[in-house]
Write a structure and sequence with these properties.
84 residues, mainly alpha, 40% helix
Length: 84
Amino acid sequence: MSDDIRPEDWISAKQAFVPRIRPAPPPAYDKEVSALVGHSIRVNDSRLIQKVAEWERNKDPERFENFLKDPRKVKELKKLFKNG
């Protein structure tokens, strides 16, 4: 069986199993925060994550709080992202 294949038709394992690497899609934009701040903010922005985590630690666990409707927190977000 292998006698029927010419030597120039053989390929090395490095050539046969080259993975097709696709770049990961960029993270999505947070539409609500972007609209409040005035420019595009990605969902995985570390500054946004840190600020929301800080608010979560300090909130009352008994009641639901919408951070985007609190004017004080919106002002903090605008200050945090004022330079882009």
